[in-house]
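W.,

You were right to be curious about this one. When I first looked at the sequence I had no strong expectations either way, so I just let the prediction run and decided to look at it fresh. Below is the sequence, 135 residues in total, followed by the output.
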Amino acid sequence: MKELKIKAEDAQMNTVNDFIHSCLPDNCNEIIFNKIDLAVEEIFVNIAHYAYNPGEGDAWISVSFDEEDRVLTIIFKDNGKEFNPIAKEDPDVTLSAEEREIGGLGIFLTKKFMDSVNYEYKDNQNILTIRKKIV
């Protein structure tokens, strides 16, 4: 497992992406690669914008890849306000953009693109785990 501790701020997004990319297997296809990128960006930006607002803090990202099962696991942790993003009701994507409420589309896409998305609050930390099979 590889780990990164980083300031939870937008300016760190490229560092987060570089870290995640360095953990992906060489044969990760472009479609899965892009889905992982979208999920990682959505989760990290939400931490950066909301976890410590109005203050600042750190995020911890852990990545592991199970070679046998071909499953990538990414765990995001922060010490910010308790918030379960997957508890929010999915947006009604049948409505036009003008008719939909703002927010929630990114985590909705994360749930659609990943094989599993789990949240827990433990030891004063938000812990969000995403998994994706790399085929």
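Here's what jumped out at me. The first strand starts at residue 2 and ends at 7. And, maybe more interesting for your project: The mean pLDDT is 91.

Coffee later to discuss?

I.
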